[in-house]
Amino acid sequence: MRYKGIIFDLDGVICSTDAYHCQAWKAFADRLGIYFDRNINNRLRGISRMASLEIVLEKSDKAYTDEEKQAFAAEKNGLYRQLLGNMSAADLSDEVRDTLHALRARGIKLAVGSSSKNTPYILERIGLGNFFDAVSDGNGITRSKPDPEVFIKAAQMLDLEQAACLVVEDARAGVEAAVNGGFDAAAIGDAKDDERARWHLRRFSDLIEIVK
Ligand code: B16
Ligand code: MG
Question: In CATH, what is the architecture of 5-15+89-210?
Answer without folding.
Answer: 3-Layer(aba) Sandwich (3.40)
